[in-house]
Amino acid sequence: MTSPYILLENVNLHYSSVAFKERSLKTLLGNILTGNKKKNAVQDVHALKNINLEVRAGERVGLLGHNGAGKSTFLKMAADLYPISSGRRIIKGNVRSLFDLSLGFEPDATGRENIFYRGLLLGLSPRLLREIEEEVVAFADLGEFIDYPIKTYSAGMQVRLAFAISTAVGGDIMLIDEVIGAGDARFMVKAKKRILDLVEQAKILVLASHDFSALQTICQRGVVFHRGEIVFDGEITEAVKTYKRVNGIGA
């Protein structure tokens, strides 16, 4: 069996300007009448620029960068959620991602039904979902609300259920974006323990965070992003120093 790995060569990713264009007919007509059509034109966003990176089994990699530097886009690209514009992307292994927790819920369906909806979206089989259903229900700890429609849930309850589903099954490659707030203090203790268990089991971890202490505890390697480019790739302590220097942050 081939060991899991991530290989990226000269990868570029653009966000199409269509995603940012004004969808209001009133505003569009106003721009035409006032002659602002060309002035307000929005260009495609070059979100990731010439990314070259190789991650092999056993590595724990921390991603550093200010908001908008490219960390989250990189993770979504590695999870194959975003198509690349050019270059080569090879991901070998079973990928599990921990971000976009609100994705895949059907508001009118019950929490129990949404275990299957979201699980299928995550690529889990119906058979496996049936096997882990009760474990997910127990971990989310929503009581009778598990059989109520999602639209009756508070934001915290939705996050707890989504977290329970998303972390029920580990993977060879774990992609995690920031620390997840998942409800009250008691639940957070369970959530943090589960994340650490998944990290321990995963053969590759890529973690994006602003928590330098957590990064230096968990990761050995650090990759610093700045304006969509990798400006440093090396030992995690040096990566933190580079991040601070690039962003003008004092020691």
Automatic annotation (TrEMBL):
It comes from the Bacteria. GO terms for cellular component: membrane. GO terms for molecular function: ABC-type transporter activity; ATP binding; ATP hydrolysis activity. CDD domains: ABC_KpsT_Wzt. Keywords: ATP-binding, Nucleotide-binding, Transport. The keyword ATP-binding applies. SMART domains: AAA. Residues 32-249 form the ABC transporter domain. Pfam families: ABC_tran. Belongs to the ABC transporter superfamily. PANTHER family: TEICHOIC ACIDS EXPORT ATP-BINDING PROTEIN TAGH. This is ABC transporter related protein. It comes from Desulforamulus reducens (strain ATCC BAA-1160 / DSM 100696 / MI-1) (Desulfotomaculum reducens).
